[in-house]
Amino acid sequence: MRHRRRGFTVLELMVVVVVGAALSQMAIKGFGYVRNQVSAREARTVFGAMVARTRAQAIESGQRTLLIADAQGDSVMILANGGVVETIRFGKDLGIDIQGPPGMTRICMTPRGYANPDCNSFSSPIKLAFVQGPKSDTVEVLPLGQIRW
Predict the structure, then answer these.
(1) φ and ψ at 114, to 5 degrees?
(2) pLDDT the model gives residue 56
(3) Nearest alpha-carbon partner for 105 in 90, 83, 127, 88
(4) Is the pTM of this model over 0.85?
(5) Nearest 5°: CA angle at 45, between 110 and 82?
(6) Residue-range domains of the chain with CATH
(7) Contacts of 103 (CB under 8 A, 6+ apart)
(8) Position 5 pLDDT exceeds 90
(9) Which residues, in sequence order, are CB contacts of 68 under 8 Å at separation 6+?
(10) What is the DSSP string of the chain?
(11) To 5 degrees, how large is the angle CA 110–CA 114–CA 117?
């Protein structure tokens, strides 16, 4: 009578480990791709919220409010009443690289809730790109302060 052992052979276990490692590797790469995509989209949304907050601040205070996007420093700040209202450092806080026109992009919101093209640092639509890894998401800013996704 022959007794058959129960369980797995070493070869079978090694095959399972190798297949599991390969699947894990693919999942990790896919997760990184999705993470970059979501981060770029989130940064674009945060910028849109900053523009909306600048507009609201100008209307509430009744004074001109500035939004300054610094592509070189990867940051965006709101200035009102001679002081900084809010600053978001996209590079440090979100790991995002802002790409746009050289220098600082300035949007001047009036108390009426639209941008003043004479005070802005641009007179025609500009594009800002929010980049993380191979993924990017762009936003177009119009001279009167509107945003196109």
Answers:
(1) -130, 160
(2) 96
(3) 127
(4) no
(5) 35
(6) 10-148 (3.55.40.10)
(7) 71, 72, 121
(8) no
(9) 76, 77, 79, 104, 105, 106, 107
(10) -PPPPPS--HHHHHHHHHHHHHHHHHHHHHHHHHHHHHHHHHHHHHHHHHHHHHHHHHHHHTS-EEEEEETTTTEEEEEETTEEEEEEEIIIII--EEE-SSSEEEEEE-TTSSB-TTTSS-SS-EEEEEEETTEEEEEEE-TTS-EE-
(11) 85
Assigned token pair, 95: 């790991």
Structure tokens at 11: 């070869």
Q: Which of the given ranges, 21-25, 27-31, 127-131, has the highest pLDDT on average?
A: 127-131
Kindly report, residue by residue over 68-81, the tens digit of the pLDDT: 999 999 999 999 98
Residue 120 burial (C-beta neighbours within 10 Å; 0-12, 13-18, 19+): buried
Amino acid at 4: R
Q: Which two tokens stand for residue 61?
A: 């205070």
Q: Which pair of structure tokens corresponds to residue 37?
A: 């995509």
Those residues whose C-beta lies under 8 Å from the C-beta of residue 55, and which sit 6 or more positions away, are: 65, 109, 113, 114, 145
